[in-house]
Structure formats: structure tokens, C-alpha cells
Amino acid sequence: MGLEKVEALQNLVVLDLTRVVAGPYAGSILGDFGAEVIKIEVPGKGDDARSYGPYRNGESVYYANLNRNKKGITLNLKTEEGKKIFLELVNKADILLENYRPGVMERLGLGYEVLREKNPRLIYGAVSGFGCYGSYSDRPGYDIISQAMGGLMSVTGAKNGDPTRSGNAMGDILGGMNLVIGVLMALNVRTLTGKGQKVDVSLVDSVVASLENAYTRYFESGQLPVRNGNAYASIAPYDSYQAKDGQVIIACGNQKLYEKLCNEVLHMPWMIAFEVFLGSAKNNWMSTDWQKPTDNIYPLLDCILENIPAPTQLEGTPQMLVTSLDYSSYTGRIAVGRVHRGTLREGMNVSLAKRDGTIIKSKIKELHTFEGMGRVKVSEVSSGDICALVGIEGFEIGDTICDYENPEALPPIAIDEPTMSMLFTINDSPFFGKEGKFVTSRHIQDRLTKELDKNLALRVRKSELEDGKWIVSGRGVLHLSVLIETMRREGYELQVGQPQVIFKEIDGVKCEPIEELTISVPEEYSSKMIDMVTRRKGDLVSMETQGDRVNIEFDMPSRGIIGLRTNVLTASAGEAIMAHRFKCYQPYKGEIERRSNGSMIAMESGTAFAYAIDKLQDRGKFFIYPQDEVYAGQVVGEHVHENDLVINVTKSKKLTNMRASGSDDKARIIPPVVFSLEEALEYIKEDEYVEVTPKSMRMRKVILDETERKRANKS
After folding, report:
1. Are 328 and 378 in contact (CB under 8 A)?
2. At what angle do helices 441-452 and 477-489 cross, to 10 degrees?
């Protein structure tokens, strides 16, 4: 048998003075459950929602939906006749709904106190942007304002995106629902007491009340609400994920559902149970419970031994892929790699399978395994061991050391090609030979040749135009700066030019190296970083907020990164952390704006005086301290304008017996800018060198003499 249909609110009369969304929505719900709802509109104007599209047969579908199950009349409540009819309706009504701005009904002489005298059982429901009380009560309240001020827009939208209004009028809908709830509660109270009452609902309060997770997290843990896209702050996985043919929604609200996802859908049962360790690297401890710190990291190491299976040993003829190399001045080049199969022994005859397919017979002289920071000599190594082999001649990265009788090569690995080149030259500045031990072209040539034995991605080509110059290519400024710093510490003096990108032609198209650039910066500087990088042809890939910082990822030409670090640090007040690595080659992106400021160049050799620097500080920033030795042609600062400026920093104050007010003021010197080696390489222009010595690092013009520089620029 079916149940007899009962309309829960039948015999209730509702007067609906509301318009647009929140109030009409509440009235339509009451009408859906059997109440007799009488919609009262202003003559000639009516509800504003009548003008909202779309339309059907000349009528607003939007208005019709929000005012379903209602009767309609028009009354002008500003006239005596209109008020008289309205009060007669009030005498017969159970509920009155209105969403005027607070105070309007009182000015019409139809406020709650007046109506209560006419009908003590009347339930008066009012909904507005900010409620009937408080400092904001007289202000208009729209849905978007309630979503913004109520906090909904702070948690709605793409992660790290702009504040976003919910696609539906959630502020109005929540306000209408809360008005219905309040009216129904007041009806129950009237059943018990026989008296009506006023129900006051605020759109902003309704939105705030809906953010149960956000305000709970904030008041209990201090976490500010953030936009998480489709993710849920307290449950994972609970998001939309990219699949091969579109987006897939995954929502696992409990452990049972998560286990079913891992076992039956993803077929990854190992994702169900895993150990989580917490600890402090600074204090040297790890534990499964952060409230129970230990005094070592043994729990983590024990867990690795218990849960991670030992490598399986492959039996058969030996195979080892050379993945790295080392160098010793006593034994020469040393092959480093992991034994893939079989066993290698000291004194064993082996074959070296080259990348091009040729086989070279060789013999292992010594075997070493790695222990701590050093190596230990052993007699044999087996499958899974990482070892170093001495005695193998002519090997390269990607070659295979295999069985002597039945050589079987492993698939070779690719080696990244150089993306940046730099000019290395002997130090020919006036300070040549004062600090270094190795200063001649022969010394630098021998050192670069030696570096090729263990630095795989390095390429060295002697300049065909001039002696004492080499074009050195590597995998970026950092790769080359490590070599320069190493040589400096070993006692070498040299000069290096501005880094140059290595272009390639791929399928007839000029291509350039693209790097993956990551900048971590406080949120208030993020827009400056994006503007700065995009001006250099960088493409924004992603933004992710972590606490009060933003991690921004770009795809950027290597050319654009040269000189970027200094600008990034300046724009972020030194707060930015920047890292980059090679990604791929892509078509040429076009011209990029480089450093626009000119250089301040020393006019004469000598000692820099505070007096001279003080008088020239308005011309730009200095790179030297007072009492530093300088030479003519040395770059001593950055000019505020685009052109280079030759200045005399060796000018001293002339002593005289005459005294005048203001002539004996103290010199106030702004601290100079001090560059690291990598920063200096990125800073210099095409006509400048970085002079590197064991104790000093200077920037200088390629042509030191001012007259010759001018002549060269004209030609």
C-alpha cells in the first residue's frame, strides 16, 4: 500500500514581500510543502527578477522558478488604501517574509512591533545582507558581497588563483534556507506558547556558518583558509585528477573506500599501508611519533631494512653499465657503475662494449666499493653492488663492461649536451700574477685538458683567432662556475667572458635551450617575479602556496636566466630563492631584454678613496670598498643610466690651510654590492670580463684603455 500524500504546511498563510533570490527562494520552499503563499509586488514595477533572462513566452524563467506555487497581488504600501488592505491580510496570515533593507518597513509604519499588535501570532521573517542589527545593517547586501565578506571566495577557485564567486548564488540560497529553518522553528515555539516572533537572517552570517571546516581549522590550529580547487582540506584523495581521456573525480571519505580504490581500481595494494616518520635533521632524530623524539635515526633505517626488499641477484655472465667516472693522477680514469648481473673479480679479463658496437678487450686491475665518504679495495663485487674499476682504458659513460668470451651490452644511457659556452682566457690585467701560482696559457690548457678526463658534459675548444683563449661549453652557468671556482682555489688566475647560449637547428628550425625555473618568494612579491620572468620570454607553468611563500615554476630560455638572479633578489628585498635546470630545446623565443644599466669604469689605476666614492654615489651603486686597489678599465660600479661612465675613484681630498663650513663633512659610504662568482658571470655584458684570482674577483672591460674602447665602438 502507498502512503497518503500529506502537505506538511497546509492551512498556513504566508505573505511574501520579498524580491530577487533569497526571500523568494524561502517562500517557494514553504509553498512546495503546502502553504498558501501570497506574493505582494509593487504596482507597475514588480519583482526585479522579472527582467532576468532567459525567457519563455515573454516571461522570465528565472522569476517563475523562484515564485512557483504562489498567488500574486499588487499593493502600494505607501498609500493609505494599500496599507489598509495589507493590514487586513496580516490579520489572517501566519507568516510574513520580507527582504527590504532594515528600517524600510518601520518608515512605512509597518514594522514588526506594529504588525505584532495587529496579529500577536504572526511570525515575521526578515532576510538581508547583514541582518537588522549592527553597523553594516543599513548597507545593501548582494550575493557576491556575502560570498566575499563571508569567506566563501577565499576557499573557492583554482589553487593559488584569484578570489572566485561560486557558480551559483550560494549566499542568497543559504540565506533563504536559513530563513525557512528559522520560520519553522518559530512555528514550533508558537505551538507551545501561542505567540509569534521575529526571525532575522543575514546572508553574510549564513555564508560564514557554511564554512564549518575553514573556521574550525583556523580557530583550533591557526591555519588560514586557502583555495584548494576541487580538493578537500581534511580528506585525501578527494579531488579531480587528470586521466588519459579527461578528468576523473576520486573521493575516498574513509579507509575502507581508499583500500578498495588501491586494490580494485588502481591495483596498487602497496599504497594502503606505509610507515610515516617525523623528525629533526638539525637534532639528528627520527620517530614514528613526533611527541616521542629519539636520539638517533635508527627507527628509519630499521624500517628500510624491514620493508624494502633486498636487490635480487641476477646470475650469469657479468654486466656493468658505466654511469660515472673518477680520476686519479696515479691510476688514471676510473669507471664507476652498478653491477647489473654476475660477479666481477680483481684481475679478471673483461670486454668493453662501446656505444657504437665495437668491443675492446681489457683487464680489471683493482676493485673498489664505496664506504662513507671514501672507497675500500675489495677482491670481488656481485650483482647490485656499486663499485669503481681501475685499469679499464678508453671507456665512456654509457659503455658496458661485460664477459670476456660472450660480451653482451646493456642499453646505453644518454649524456646531456652542453647548453652554455664561455670564453676562458689568461689574465692580462695590470694585477696579473700578484696572487696566483698558475697564470700562463700552458697552465690553463693543461688544467682544462685534465678536467675533460672526469667532467663528462664539458667541451673545450681552443680559439682559432687568438692564442691563450678557449671556448669552454657546459650545462649552464652553475656547471661552468663550479669549474672556475675550483681552479681559483687551486691557485689559477684567469679571465672569463659573458656566458653564451648554444643554439641548435632542429628540423630546419633555430632552437634554444629551455630551463625549468623555480622561484620561492613571499606572496607579496609574486606578481613582480611573474612580470620580470615573462618579460624575458618565460612561460608560467604553476604556482603553489606553502605557508606565507609561493613557489612559482616557469619554462624559460637559458638566455633569459643570465642576469636574472640579481634583479630577482633586488625586487624581492633579498627574500627570493631561485633554482633552475635544463629541460629541453624549443624554437627560438625572440629577442630578450638584458641588463639595461651601464657600468661605472675606473679612469686611473691606484687606491680608491672614500672622498671620491662619496662624491660619486649619486651616479650609481659601487662594487668596491674604500682603500681597494683598482686599475684603469676596471668596472667599479653600476651606472644609474644606460651608458657607461668613466669616473675617477682615486681622487683624494686636497689639503689646505683654508677652512670653510661644510668642507670637512664626514664621508657617508653606502656598503658596496658584493657578487658571488655565479652572480658576476650573469651580470657582465658582452664587452666585459670577470677576472678571477685566488684571493680576488673583479669585473673589467675587455679593452681597458678608454680611447681604444671608443675607437672600437665606432668601428
Report:
1. no
2. 120
